[in-house]
Design goal:
Chain lengths: 737, 383
């Protein structure tokens, strides 16, 4: 009996041993894999996105840590816990109850994100509440980053923006996505069934590699000069479409500033910034279907995100004459002494072409040499030049100047140009003066820069350096010379002729006393615009290319105004003063000192001109050529008031304050007390207060002078720009040095 | 039964005075298993103890305390002549029945009325019931040995005694305990000399019952679904299959060599009660197939030694006691491992020497003491 019993027991153990062998040895690996599936959790560690700096290290786009708040619905197993969690989320995150409950209903999961991009203080408050109320593990945080653009809608077309998932969507953020994004890391760790790390258990971390940072060629200050002027131009000239501008280092092709207005705020890219457009959409909302409205909204988004400087080919018009002239000189079709006759119109192959001057004067420019043809921006002369070059030469230089290829600038969405593959004689005629083909603004400023920088076609670029998270330099961008397009001599001739355009030709409004500025105006018709059909008119593009100083060009600026709603719209009157204003700010900022000619010094006005009711850019131009400084108060586009008033004496080096808004005008400033102070001190405090100073009394070299009296008296409330006259006497007690 | 008593008494008188040494092999096997059991209990329990109570030593410290009490109890019992148990056989049985009735009214949990609260710990009457049945069976078999072929002595008294206990335990309900007690009882009857035809009749009845359950679904509710979940636990991985799947994950993760002692991952709240019924899953995970086999080998050695003691024992009472108690350890071990490895459908059954549980451990060690006490009589020359 006992043998049978032993046999039964042994049999029993054999059965379970067999089963264990099957489970552990035969199926072990498969079961282990399934076990690991539930034990191992892989968590993503976000890599910090790199910063985008301007050329001087000012951050234009940076990332900050924010938090995603998550819940573990699977662990919220009692109604009490559920109501606690709901209450906490409602209270601290301002979420609505319904959406929370929807998430909490997913009981099969341990991970549901309830809110993203929560800032640290808010997250801290929530987590304090969570730990105090025993909700740890039910509500938890996950690190995330958020993109900030400290300057708002600044350089937005260049920067683009990063989406909510920190993925670059537009602009540099998109082009340099791989560089900026870095590599996210992971932590693979063993978790118990509640999702908490097992103590002392396997945990492997693959560290995240933070993204590298970009240092741009963009200079925040110059960008600001450009954007400020473009922003004013938009309402000033009732621009229907937009204004676009590029400032470039003539010699290297480095982009110093690039902007289009209206633009967008990358912090909130889905908000329509343009008031006009927003209003239009609001109106549409009431009449259109949802689909139509959504479509319009999407189009508005894409329109404001677009970087027009590189993405939109346009007909360059007369600015292109720089290219025609340079090419013609280089291939020897013309010389500077060649003469061209303009009767006001010319006929090529039976097609008549009118010179722009014909409409206003009813006569042509007559006999002109090349310099005057450029100064006059004479179309018949350039048709003649084009014909003298011939289609083959013209096409060759068109291509040499880089107008048939993308410039290769490191920005996404660069468009290709649209040009004649084969030139008929009429194609050649209209192309000579910049019509019937399209190039992008970046192509044009690069080509025009080549014409004046000694003939080198540069590859424009916008990132000069990539640095890693610790600040180590990863790579530097060296300027790339694509090719020598024209000789140094011809380039110099071009510079001098283009200087004449600004000094005595159509580009006068770009003059800046103290600097030799060259440039070329352009007014082109958008012959293929859909508005021709819908509104029965041809919109214009007004543009100006300017560069300075002529003797050694450092900086070039191209501004184009797309479809202004003004009468008599010309590049010479609209675009030139904007470029003038940008360059007038930029040149001294770049450390290029003004060198006044005798003539300019003699021209300095002593009495204020009448500037009221002028467009701001006009008034600024008038101040500039009068050798006066000016200061603008307000955000308007027209001068409403000026101080000192017209006819009043302005002391040497004085400033005219231009008021462009009703509100700003009339703000009073107390006159500082300067009696007893030295002249330098008095000058500093009076000018510093926004007033003008006029010093009377004999100034004797080498003596120490102090202010004996002042008018208006100290403490009196006056308007900005008011002249404070001080009387100086020799000090009785000279300050020892 | 009344007639049986004087015979027992005369036997006891003769033997009581003789003393021999306890079986050291058996004692060491018990201590080895207890040591391994305590180590594995600590390893298996610290994670869940920490998560549940905040104190990783919660289970092991209690178990150690009971182990010490149990060892003392074991040696005390070993030094008592087991023949006095003849006198307590009915008393203990009646006490057990009383406690089994009591637990239906005084218990810690409503869904399984198995534990009587004692304040500092709980007491499980079914643990005592195992011993009570073994004892009374041994008593009856040894006194009625000559008449075992007669069903009046060899079948009905046993069925009646077992039936009362089984009925009460099913009321708790405590199915696994019931199965265990039935197995031990039947084996004791089998070894004790009950006519074999009764086992055939019982076997046929059991087979018929199984056929009825399998062929006519609904006779016993949930039977079919229970079998389905046993055949394929993955049909309800979050519900009824959960425990089994987690146990299989643990066993499978161990592989041949195991993940190393202390390194079980499944004990981190995946396995239900890793310190209790599923402790052997943790053993398999940490020590692998090789470790599990070695531990099973120690169990087999212990059981072998228990039977050797039974065989060498010169009187039937001691022999039957040793057989009953050894079989209890063997059957319980096999059932436990069969459950955790999903060889049989899941039912709660603990692993001797390993599973956490104070009264059960003290009880078990005292039973081992009884076997040791029996072993002291083995070297005597036969009557």
């Amino acid at each position: 009996m006992i043998v049978v019993l032993v046999a039964m027991i042994v049999f029993g153990f054999c059965v379970v041993l067999h089963q264990l062998f099957k489970l552990q040895v035969v199926e072990g690996e498969a079961l282990q894999a399934r076990a690991l599936q539930q034990q191992l959790r892989s968590e993503r560690i976000g890599a910090k996105r790199g910063t985008i700096y301007d050329t001087n290290g000012n951050p234009l786009a940076k990332s900050a840590t924010v938090w995603s708040v998550c819940v573990a619905p699977g662990l919220i197993d009692t109604p009490e816990k559920e109501s606690d969690v709901t209450a906490a989320l409602e209270k601290f995150l301002e979420l609505d109850k319904e959406s929370i409950q929807k998430k909490l209903a997913l009981k099969g999961t341990l991970y549901q994100v309830v809110k993203t991009k929560v800032e640290k203080p808010q997250a801290d408050e929530l987590m304090t509440f969570v730990s105090e109320n025993g909700l740890t593990g039910l509500i938890f945080l996950e690190q995330d980053t958020r993109r900030y653009y400290p300057y708002g809608n600044f350089a937005s077309a260049v920067l683009g923006f990063a989406n909510d998932d920190n993925h670059g969507a537009y602009g540099l953020e998109s082009y340099y996505e791989k560089v900026l994004a870095g590599t996210p890391g992971r932590v693979v760790s063993m978790k118990n069934s509640r999702g908490v790390d097992m103590d002392l258990q396997y945990s492997q971390e693959y560290a995240a590699k933070d993204g590298d940072s970009l240092v741009l060629t963009i200079d925040e200050t110059i960008q600001h000069f450009l954007e400020k002027n473009l922003e004013i131009a938009l309402p000033e000239h009732k621009v229907r479409n937009r204004v676009t501008g590029v400032v470039m280092d003539v010699k290297t092709g480095a982009v110093l500033a690039m902007a289009s207005k209206p633009d967008f705020d990358p912090n909130n890219p889905y908000e329509i910034l343009d008031d006009k457009k927003r209003e239009e959409l609001e109106n549409l909302k009431t009449v259109a279907t949802k689909e139509q409205y959504d479509q319009a909204l999407r189009e508005a988004w894409y329109a404001q995100w677009r970087n027009y400087a590189i993405s939109d080919p346009y007909e360059p018009g007369s600015v292109f004459k720089i290219i025609t002239a340079s090419g013609a000189l280089e291939c020897g079709a013309v010389t500077r002494q060649s003469t061209f006759y303009c009767s006001g119109a010319t006929t090529v192959n039976g097609t008549p072409y009118h010179c722009w001057v014909w409409a206003s004067r009813g006569e042509g420019h007559g006999q002109q040499d090349l310099e005057h043809a450029i100064m006059n921006s004479c179309n018949p002369a350039f048709i003649d030049i084009g014909q003298r070059m011939g289609a083959q030469n013209f096409a060759e230089y068109f291509s040499n100047f880089g107008l048939t290829e993308k410039t290769g600038i490191d920005l996404p969405g660069e468009a290709t140009s649209i040009y004649h593959a084969r030139y008929t004689i009429n194609d050649l005629a209209s192309s000579s003066f910049g019509q019937t083909f399209k190039v992008t603004p970046i192509q044009l400023i690069t080509a025009a820069s080549a014409a004046v920088n000694g003939g080198k076609l540069m590859q424009p670029y916008i990132v000069k350096q990539i640095v890693d998270a610790e600040g180590n330099v990863i790579s530097n961008t060296e300027p790339v010379v694509k090719r020598q397009v024209v000789s140094e001599d011809i380039s110099k001739e071009m510079r001098l002729m283009l200087e004449q355009v600004v000094a005595n030709g159509s580009g006068r409004q770009a003059q800046i006393p103290g600097y030799r500025v060259g440039g070329k105006t352009g007014t082109s018709e958008q012959l293929d615009s859909p508005k021709l059909k819908s509104e029965g008119r041809t919109p214009n593009t007004l543009s100006f290319f300017g560069f300075a100083p002529v003797e050694d060009p450092q900086v070039a600026c191209l501004v184009l105004i797309d479809d202004p709603d003004i009468y008599n719209a010309y590049g010479s009157t609209v675009a030139a003063p904007i470029v003038g204003a940008v360059l007038a700010d930029t040149l001294p900022y770049m450390g290029i000192e003004p060198q006044y000619t005798e003539e300019e010094l003699a021209n300095v006005a002593t009495k204020a001109e009448y500037l009221i009711n002028l467009d701001l850019h006009d008034a600024q131009y008038k101040c500039r050529v009068s050798g006066l400084k000016y200061r603008v108060v307000g955000n308007g586009t027209k001068v409403l008031r000026q101080i000192p008033e017209a006819g009043e004496t302005i002391p040497e080096g004085g400033t005219i304050v231009l008021y462009t808004e009703e509100e700003g005008a009339g703000d009073l400033i107390p006159v500082p007390d300067v009696v007893g102070k030295t002249v330098e001190e008095a000058n500093r405090s009076i000018v510093g207060a926004g007033l003008n100073i006029s010093i009377s009394g004999e100034q004797i070299e080498g003596t120490h002078q102090v202010v004996s009296s002042q008018t208006p008296a100290a403490g009196e409330q006056v308007e900005a720009g008011t002249v404070v006259t001080i009387q100086c006497v020799e000090s009785t007690a000279p300050v020892t040095e | 039964m009344e007639a049986a008593r004087p015979a027992g008494k005369t036997r006891k008188k003769r033997i009581r005075a003789e003393k021999g040494g306890i079986d050291l092999t058996f004692m060491f096997l018990v201590l080895i298993l207890l040591a391994i059991g305590l180590i594995m209990l600590f390893s298996a329990s610290y994670a869940s103890a920490y998560y549940e109570t905040g104190n990783s030593f919660y289970y092991i410290s209690r178990q150690l305390l009971f182990a010490i009490v149990g060892i003392i109890g074991m040696f005390v019992v070993a030094n008592i002549d087991y023949h006095i148990l003849h006198r307590f056989a009915f008393l203990i049985y009646i006490g057990t029945v009383f406690l089994l009735i009591l637990v239906l009214f005084v218990h810690t949990r409503e869904d399984a009325r198995r534990w009587i609260p004692l304040g500092f710990t709980t007491f499980q009457p079914s643990e005592l019931a195992k011993f009570a049945v073994v004892l009374i069976f041994a008593h009856l078999i040894s006194t009625n040995y000559d008449r075992m072929k007669d069903p009046k002595y060899g079948v009905w008294p046993f069925l009646a005694l077992m039936g009362i206990v089984v009925l009460l335990m099913l009321l708790e309900p405590h199915l696994s305990g019931t199965i265990l007690i039935l197995s031990i009882g039947i084996i004791m009857m089998f070894v004790g000399g009950t006519d074999l035809k009764w086992f055939m009749i019982g076997g046929l009845l059991l087979a018929a019952a199984v056929v009825v359950i399998v062929l006519i679904p609904g006779v016993i509710p949930y039977a079919m679904s229970r079998i389905q979940h046993w055949r394929d636990p993955w049909i309800d991985p979050q519900g009824k299959g959960f425990q089994t799947i987690q146990s299989l994950y643990a066993i499978g993760s161990g592989g041949l060599m195991g993940v190393g002692i202390g390194n079980s991952r499944q004990k981190h709240l995946y396995l239900p009660e890793p310190q209790n019924d599923f402790i052997f899953s943790v053993v398999c995970e940490e020590l692998g197939f090789i470790g599990a086999t070695l531990i099973i080998l120690v169990f087999v050695l212990l059981i072998w030694r228990g039977y050797v003691i039974a065989m060498r024992c010169r009187d039937r009472f001691g022999s039957m006691l040793a057989i009953g108690l050894t079989t209890q350890v063997g059957v319980q071990t096999i059932l436990n491992i069969a459950v955790v490895s999903n060889t049989i459908p899941n039912t709660g059954i603990s692993l001797p020497f390993f599973s956490s549980g104070g009264t059960a451990l003290v009880m078990l060690l005292a039973e081992m003491g009884v076997i040791l006490s029996v072993s002291r009589q083995t070297n005597l020359e036969k009557e």
